[in-house]
What does this fold into?
Amino acid sequence: MALIVQKYGGTSVGDIERIKNVAQRVKTVYEQGHKIVVVLSAMAGVTNALINLAHQMSPQPDSRELDVLMATGEQQSIALFSMAAKDLGMHAHSLLGFQASIKTDNMFGRARITSVNTARIEDMLNRGVLVAVAGFQGLDTQGDVTTLGRGGSDTTAVALAAALKADLCEIYTDVEGVYTADPNMVAKARKLRQISYEEMLEMASLGAKVLDIRSVAMAAKFGVHVHVRSTFSDQEGTMVVPENIIDEKLTVRGVTYNKNDARIRISQVPDHPGTAYKLFAPVAEAGIVIDVIVQNISKEGYTDLTFTVPKTDFQRAMTILESQIIPMFKAGKLEGDTDIAKVSIVGIGMRNHSGVATKMFDVLARENINIQLISTSEIKISCVIDEKYTELAVRSLHEAFGLDKDNPPQAEA
Ligand code: ADP
Ligand code: ASP
Ligand code: MG
It folds into this structure.
């Protein structure tokens, strides 16, 4: 008998029929005598609709109240699912985040799980109860409802799996696993049988939203084996596991893209110690996360700085820079561009291979795509390009690195 945590995403519980389908799936495992915790997302579109409502009510909705509102999406799903499960003869019981003792910090809208007390869930499981927990939500130390950030139900599932020492954490979604590229963009993308935590962490942070980045970090920290698979088929999905279990070593395992950032350039900044600190400190203090940064070689004591920020923070960043930084440095010009995309290639095999970056640049050059910024780590290379070339870049890279083939030429012996 195993203890299994299963998470079903928004599309998987998108309507009444689909929720019934999920209950039917769960029944098969329940009847085998396993202990099951089901974590559910809000029905597809519901979280967006709630955010929309909040913005109709207030130009800048209060973050505490926004979390109270957003958390209702998952509340609907667990109640409806538990009704369906009971109708199918299961002893089901729904729990909101706080009832499942999921504690978080107090960062409304992007709270981090700090602890999970599993006593109540364990007691229920021992009594043969099928436990349905609302994803994406918790309670802070003040007793206020928090939400974990978009895609956060994955993190609820992995946190519960870690705390319960579950045998398996299954993430059921609308694709059959983790692919070499977003299968909704690249028709020839292939499903990966396995992927390491480290590669998945990079892919998630660079745009592959199939798993929320925090869920991957948590799975890596606690060694939770995660199986990403489809709600709509019985096919094996992708196992996200420690690197030493991976038997297929590829130089490049995936291509990702992210259209959520904007680029900012400040020219004629004095090139002396302390400039970067003075420039970025007020932006960081405003809670704006800066990603890729490039500083040009200086000319006559002045340099240019280019960096990216989330599109959602672009206007705020521009206002801070315009009002505080430009006057302070008497910098020449502030320019912004929201029509950019970051295209990346990821793979642990890159550590031992040279020429991967050159090949990426060559592929983009052949397609006449200009690279605006480059950033690298041990296992990834990212290029910022004009947003309108995203699909072309992703597809060309996917093909050039042989990812659409069963036996990619780049596979190591
Ligand atoms: P859920 O609602 O189940 O949490 P998400 O929409 O958050 O599902 O994530 C699944 C989506 O992730 C897929 O529909 C797919 O378009 C997207 N995706 C992006 N990159 C990848 C990838 N490399 N492999 C699989 N899916 C990906
Ligand atoms: N319902 C939340 C969202 O849409 C959380 C999740 O689905 O993972 O982001
Ligand atoms: Mg998701």
